[in-house]
Fold Rhomboid protease GlpG.
Amino acid sequence: MSAVAVLRLPLAVDLSGFVKLLQRMQVPHRVSEEAGEQVLWVPDSISEDVRSLYERFPTGDPDQQLDIPNTRAAVRRPGFVEQLRHSPVTALILLLSLIIGGVTMLGDNLDVIRWLTFLEFRIAGEYIQFTPLADSLEAGQWWRLVTPMLIHFGILHLAMNGMWYWELGRRIEMRQGSINLLGLTLLFSLVSNYAQYLFSGPTLFGGLSGVLYGLLGHCWIYQILSPNPAYRLPRGVLVMMLVWLLLCMSGLISMIGFGEIANAAHVGGLLVGCFTGLLGGLFSRRKLAV
């Protein structure tokens, strides 16, 4: 991976504290002297993160800097429109979920839902008759492998999944790019949908939750292997999501009125997300070491 000059400072500036901070964070870097300046070099992929870090903590002491107000060093938070512009795939998936939610009347319009479910079905009196998956695939309906992620049953279901996809999707899109986020989203949807189908058989299921657990597992393992501010989740988020998964698997959540939970989709998404995070983290660490 190519290195770029992220800082060029006079020799009189004491950069030792900030270098120690980079060392504590295990950020690959080197300092050189050129034309009477000290130059800090870091991998291109994390240059903006390092520059932002220096603006906040030039002495390398986060605790000290946080106690001293400094408006010049403050980093402007991007506005919502700017975040949308830098997160096109995240915004696209959420927009599609909203549109599908409206068209399907959040699960009530079965005539539309039947085109997006993992298994095609038809209503026969009071019963639902499902078409075998192989028949749908032979008919060219390959989209069914991933489109269940766009179906939501109720406003709370859509709102919670949308909020978490916005939070996790933006992180991956910022760190690894839009194409990678799209690929991971489709992969996690495919694996989680198929896992749920294998576990529960012909049933109606949908939602982004399997994808969300995939994104969570990906960020979790990736951050362990190749630390980066973009993947540093708020404290307690990982624990909360894993506890929620265990509660769902226990059957308690369904008993108190939240309906049937696609536990196999959650577990399948989490496992494949941990696997992609392992591969991505190892690859990133290897590139940074070059």
Observations:
- Residues 263-289 form the longest helix (27 residues).
